[in-house]
Write a structure and sequence with these properties.
This protein has 2 domains: 172 residues; 99 residues. It starts with a helix and ends with a helix. The longest helix has 57 residues. The protein is an all-alpha fold. It binds protoporphyrin IX containing FE (HEM). Protoporphyrin IX containing FE binds next to helix 4, helix 6, helix 7 and helix 14. The site of protoporphyrin IX containing FE (HEM) has 22 residues, from helix 4, helix 6, helix 7 and helix 14.
Length: 315
C-alpha cells in the first residue's frame, strides 16, 4: 500500500479531533429556525390560507398575510434573501475570492438548507396561490429543490478526492483492503454478520443496470446497510441497551465496539461507492445538465416577477 493511502486509512479508522462539530451545531440550529419559522406562519395563517380567493379579503388576517401586506411582503423579502443565498453556491465556483472563503461542503450545506426552505417561504408569501409568472417560477423552483435532494445523495456517493483526481481508484481499493484487514484483526464482530454486511452485488450486473434502477439499488443498499449495522451491534447488547439503542440502530457507549462497527460500516459504504462509482458519476453529470438550466429559468422568472412588482409600485 502506498504511504499516502496508509495515512488516509489511519485517518479514517483512528478517532481524530472533530473539526466539523461547530459547523454541525450551527447547521442544526439553522434547520430548527427554518422549521419553527415555517410552522409559526402555517399555524398563524391556517384559517386564512384555507379560505377561497373570494372570501380572503373579508378575513381579519388578509391585510397582514396578502403578498403585499406587512407579513406577506416580509416573506417575499426573505424569499429574495434566500434566492441570493442559494445562488451564492454556484457563483462561488466562478469568483476566486469567494472560493477562498470557507469549505465548499459547508457552502453546499447552506445551499441545501436555503434550497429546502425557500419553496415554503415563497409558498406562504404567495398565500399558497400559484398563478402567472410567479406561479411558474414557484413550480420550477419546487422541481429544482426536489431534484436537489437526489443530487445531494449522488454528491455524497462520489468521493471528492476522486473527482479532483487526488485519490486514484487504486488508492481507494487499497483503502478498502486495509479497512478489511483492520476489522479482521479486531475480532470484535461476528464473522457471518460481518460478511453479510460487506456482501456486494456483482460488478458486471451493476454495470448492466439501467441508470434509474442503479440509483434505486444504491439507495436500497444504504437501507440494508443500516439494518446490517444494527444486527452487528445487537450481538453485544444487554436487554436494557436493546431499548436505549432502539434495537441497535443507535450507537452504544462501548468505544471499541463502536470503532469496529464504524470501520465495518465505512468499508461497506466504500465498497458500494466503488462499485457504483461510474454509474453515480454518469447520473450526477446528467443531473447537473437538468438542475442548472432549470435553476436559471427559475432565476429569470423570479427576477421578472420582482421587476413587475417594482413597476406596479409595490416597493
Ligand atoms: C430553489 C432551489 C435551488 C436552486 C435554484 C438551486 C440551484 C443550484 C445551482 C445553480 C447549482 C449549480 C449547478 C452547477 O454548477 O452545475 C446547484 C448545485 C447543487 N445543488 Fe442546488 N439549487 C436549489 C436547491 C437545492 C436543494 C434543495 C438541494 C439539496 C437538497 C440542492 C443540491 C445541490 C447540489 C448537490 C448541487 C451540486 C453541487 C456540486 O456539484 O458542486 N440544491 N444548485
Amino acid at each position: 500500500m502506498s504511504a499516502t493511502a496508509a495515512v488516509r486509512v489511519a485517518e479514517r479508522v483512528k478517532p481524530t479531533v472533530d473539526t466539523e462539530r461547530g459547523h454541525r451545531i450551527r447547521l442544526r440550529l439553522l434547520y430548527v429556525l427554518a422549521v419553527v419559522t415555517n410552522l409559526a406562519i402555517f399555524v398563524y395563517g391556517f384559517d386564512y390560507y384555507k379560505l377561497s380567493a373570494m372570501d380572503r379579503p373579508f378575513s381579519p388576517k388578509h391585510h397582514m398575510l396578502r403578498p403585499s401586506g406587512p407579513i406577506g411582503l416580509y416573506l417575499g423579502f426573505m424569499g429574495v434573501a434566500l434566492f441570493i443565498g442559494i445562488f451564492l453556491y454556484p457563483i462561488r465556483k466562478h469568483w476566486a475570492w469567494l472560493g477562498q472563503i470557507g469549505k465548499t461542503r459547508h457552502w453546499l450545506d447552506i445551499h441545501v438548507l436555503m434550497g429546502l426552505t425557500a419553496p415554503f417561504i415563497i409558498a406562504f408569501h404567495s398565500t399558497l396561490k400559484f398563478r402567472g409568472i410567479a406561479g411558474m417560477a414557484f413550480w420550477i423552483m419546487f422541481a429544482v429543490s426536489a431534484s436537489g435532494v437526489v443530487g445531494r445523495y449522488l454528491y455524497a456517493q462520489i468521493p471528492r478526492r476522486v473527482t479532483t483526481v487526488e485519490l486514484s481508484m487504486k488508492e481507494l481499493q487499497e483503502l478498502q483492503e486495509s479497512l478489511s484487514r483492520e476489522l479482521a484483526t479486531q475480532r470484535l464482530l461476528p464473522e457471518a454478520d460481518l460478511k453479510d454486511l460487506l456482501r456486494m452485488p456483482n460488478a458486471q450486473q451493476v454495470a448492466r443496470l439501467p441508470i434509474p434502477i442503479a440509483l434505486i439499488y444504491m439507495m436500497i443498499l444504504d437501507v440494508v446497510r443500516m439494518f446490517g449495522v444494527a444486527r452487528l451491534r445487537r450481538h453485544a447488547l444487554s436487554v436494557g441497551e436493546y431499548l436505549t439503542t432502539l434495537f441497535g440502530f443507535f450507537p452504544t457507549q462501548h468505544r471499541e465496539l463502536e470503532k469496529a462497527i464504524h470501520a465495518a460500516a465505512e468499508e461497506a459504504a466504500l465498497s458500494k461507492r466503488l462499485l457504483f462509482l461510474s454509474r453515480s458519476q454518469k447520473v450526477f453529470h446528467l443531473w447537473h445538465v437538468v438542475h442548472k438550466p432549470f435553476s436559471y429559468a427559475f432565476a429569470v422568472l423570479a427576477l421578472l416577477h420582482i421587476g413587475l412588482q417594482f413597476v406596479l409600485g409595490y416597493f
